[in-house]
Design a protein that fits this description.
The structure holds 2 protein chains of 2 kinds. Chain A is mainly alpha-helical. Chain A has 10 helices and 10 strands. In chain A, the strands form 4 sheets. A 3-stranded antiparallel β-sheet of chain A has the order 4-3-10, with no helix packed on it. Chain A has a 3-stranded antiparallel β-sheet with strand order 7-8-9. By secondary structure, chain B is mainly α. The chains are: A mainly alpha, B mainly alpha. Chains A and B meet through strand 10, helix 4, helix 5, helix 6 and helix 7 of A and helix 1 of B.
Chain lengths: 361, 163
């Protein structure tokens, strides 16, 4: 078996080397041709492309130039305003982005870099009025979150129904694929960290784990229905960590609060320790928020930067190196997707465990 | 910068969506799944315990069987031994009986032969006696045909008689 795998890796190496040679031999001509074409166009700006991707948007790209407009929901000081984002989508006309103006019920709107703003009929932005807008739009991150949720609900509800159908029998199919993961969250995340009171928190931990995991994984898929940077969005990680914060502090028993407000230390140390502990309440979920956000966003930025290299150099010569590195990064990101879901859930379980722990002095 | 600035809309929708997801999955997925897993775990543990008990019972039965077998073997040996002894005895008894019977029969035959012989001898003796009488008669008849000889004989006999 070992011998065979060595043989295979040799074959793969040969294949890769020959592929690179073929590229080198064939593509110079085409890349030169492209270079000439590109000179007329505006300079490629990777920063804009990357930030556009890792951020949010009012329209949902499905395939190529097919873009699904999403509803814009605005809460203005005069009332709720709902319209399609297609009405304010910026469009590229002759290399320049042209703004659209939409006459709503209460104000006139335009969009600048996917931010809805109040404008007058001529298109001049009214900054003071724009600040008063509350944007509750279904953005593409919300849409992708819902797709992830639908996947989760379909998968797990069907899994639970197969438990009902195959009562007392060995798991099968999806059930046997996901059962070890569910068991992992229960046996290796919840029980060791929380202890005997784990049963109350297990639905939250499982939901958190699979919510983060599915959105991390969808983020790695480069085309519809994936490719969005949802778990790398600070708003999402903020909500998740606030849920952790609330759960931990609601579950906190008297030992937990005593540890914060009346620790067993000399009285004069209270001046330092109590504020530190209070900061600790916030900083633990804050670290969760930043960790997930930074890890996922960084992964997306690296992959996009590597792909952007092709466009920066304007040469297909770069693509083999670029693709190899992207494959490498995607493999790491796959690991990170699981790892971050695990770490977030594990630390949440740990904080809950610290809050519900019984001390016997 | 926009990247680290949480967007109110996304916060709002994430909160609502996550809570709905938590509710739906908690009610329709986690509860049945976890209870089914727990049920199965209990079942497996139960089955394992039962299997362990069955194994113990089995080994106990095997031991018992072995002991029984051993005992049966010993009994069989004893029975065989006794049967052999009995057989030997029967054979020897039969031999002895046959021997005595034979001896008795031989004895009886001998007695019979002797008696037959005596009878035959007596018969022969009678025959011989009657024959000799006949012969003597005939001889006497011839010898005493004349008077002289009769007288001679009478005188002879008278001489022989010693008074």
């Amino acid at each position: 078996m070992n011998k065979k795998s060595i043989l295979n890796s040799k074959k793969i190496k040969q294949l890769l080397i020959s592929a690179v040679f073929i590229m080198v031999a064939i593509f110079p001509a085409t890349s030169f041709a492209q270079e000439k074409e590109h000179k007329a166009e505006e300079k490629f700006n990777p920063k804009d492309v990357i930030l556009e991707h890792v951020g949010d948007s009012h329209s949902l790209p499905i395939f190529g130039s097919i873009i699904l407009p999403l509803p814009v929901i605005l809460y203005t000081d005069k009332g709720l305003e709902v319209f399609s984002s297609a009405n304010v989508r910026e469009e590229e006309v002759e290399g320049k982005s042209e703004k659209k103006i939409y006459q709503g019920k209460y104000y006139t709107y335009t969009a600048d870099h996917d931010k809805i703003l109040v404008a007058d009929a001529a298109g001049n932005v009214d900054k003071a009025a724009s600040k008063k807008l509350w944007d509750f739009s279904i953005t593409r991150n919300v849409a992708s979150m819902w797709m992830g949720m639908i996947i989760l609900i379909i998968v797990f509800v069907s899994m639970s129904s197969s438990y009902r159908k195959r009562q007392g029998k060995a798991p099968k199919g999806f059930q046997s694929l996901l059962e070890p993961v569910v068991m992992f969250v229960r046996d290796d995340v919840a029980i060791p960290n929380i202890g005997s009171k784990y049963a109350r928190y297990i639905p939250l931990l499982l939901t958190m784990f699979f919510f983060i995991l599915i959105n991390n994984l969808l983020g790695l898929v480069p085309f519809f229905p994936g490719g969005f940077n949802l778990t790398g969005n600070i708003a999402v990680t903020l909500v998740l960590s606030v849920i952790t914060l609330i759960t931990v502090n609601i579950s906190g028993n008297k030992y937990y609060w005593k540890h914060i407000f009346a620790p067993d230390i000399p009285l004069w140390l209270y001046i330092i320790m109590v504020p530190v502990e209070i900061i600790g309440i916030i900083s633990k979920p804050f670290a969760l928020m930043i960790r997930l956000f930074a890890n996922i966003t960084a992964g997306h930025i690296i992959v996009l930067s590597l792909i952007s290299l092709i466009f920066i150099f304007k040469s297909l010569w770069v693509s083999p190196a670029s693709v190899v590195f992207v494959v490498f990064m995607d493999t790491i990101e796959l690991l990170v997707a699981f790892l971050q879901a695990y770490i977030f859930t594990m630390l949440t379980a740990l904080f809950i465990g610290m809050a519900v722990e019984e001390h016997h002095h | 910068m926009g990247l680290v600035e949480p967007h109110i809309g996304l916060v709002f929708w994430t909160t609502i969506s996550f809570l709905i997801l938590l509710f739906i999955l908690g009610k329709f997925a986690w509860k049945p799944i976890l209870s089914a897993i727990k049920e199965r775990e209990r079942f497996i543990e139960d089955a394992l315990l039962k299997a362990e008990a069955a194994k113990e019972e089995m080994s106990r039965l095997t031991n018992e069987n072995e002991a029984l077998l051993k005992q049966a073997r010993a009994e069989r040996d004893v029975i065989l031994h006794e049967a052999k002894k009995l057989k030997d005895q029967i054979i020897s008894d039969a031999k002895e009986a046959a021997h005595t019977e034979g001896a008795r029969m031989i004895e009886m035959a001998r007695i019979e032969i002797n008696s037959q012989k005596a009878i035959a001898l007596a018969d022969v003796k009678n025959q011989v006696a009657s024959l000799s009488l006949e012969i003597a008669e005939k001889v006497l008849k011839q010898q005493l045909a004349d008077q002289d000889k009769q007288d001679e004989l009478v005188s002879q006999l008278l001489r022989e008689v010693k008074l």
